[in-house]
Amino acid sequence: MFNCNFYYLMTDFKVLKYLCAILLMVVAVQVNAQDAEEVTDEELKGYAEVMYKVDQMKAEAKEKYVELIKGHELMQKGKRFNEIKKAKGDEAVLAELGVTEEELAAYNGILAENDKFKVEIKEAFNALVKEDLGAGTYNKVKRQLKSDEELKAKYDEVYASVESADQPESDTDEEEED
Questions:
Q1: By the 8 A CB rule, do 132 and 49 touch?
Q2: Can you list the alpha helix ranges (DSSP code H) found in 72-134?
Q3: What is the pTM of this model?
Q4: Residues near 144 by Cβ (< 8 Å), separated by ≥ 6?
């Protein structure tokens, strides 16, 4: 009887061993399939163009945000804004700083405006990805950039070329014509 149970036990181990081997092969195929997801030059360029456009929107939003802060008369060119920000909503600190309701309302208004900028950028980003690239391509390129240093270096070059192509031509050509 012991031999019989030992036989079944050994058979179970063999089955388990085969199942583990099959599972390892499936995982290896999955990993290789992900590695085989090669990013084309066109996809990389499209990704770089989308990211450049988003970076431009972020820079414009940041400029507007700084202008709002420095341009508001109650924010004293940003000094008061920073003091209120450092208080982190602590009523005792705000009272110690002598922050008025009007200043607090101005501060909150600026933050609300900045939140609008962020929402606009997020919506524009989603639209750009959807229209210019496609969500699948975006996710594939993003995933590959995280794991492939060579692709990341190539992306940096492509991004730089997109950035330089957007820069206006120098005025030296016009000066030579005069």
A1: yes
A2: 79-87, 91-97, 101-128
A3: 0.68
A4: 37, 39, 151
Q: 17-66: per-residue pLDDT in tens?
A: 655 556 666 655 555 455 558 999 999 999 999 999 999 999 999 999 99
Q: Is residue 175 in some structural domain?
A: no
The tally of domains found in the chain comes to: 2
Domain around 121 = 41-165
Answer yes or no: do 134 and 161 share one domain.
yes
State whether 29 and 98 are in the same domain.
Answer: no
Residue 149 lies in a domain: yes
**Ramachandran class of 116: left when φ > 0, alpha when ψ lies in -120 to 50, beta otherwise:** alpha
Amino acid at 26: V
Task: Provide the residue type at 110 as one letter.
Answer: I
What token pair was written down for 97? 């700083």
Report d(CA 46, CA 44) in Å as an integer.
5
Minimal CA–CA distance to 138: which of 150, 127, 149? 127
Tell me the C-alpha distance between 101 and 111, whole Å: 15
* Domain membership flag for residue 103: yes
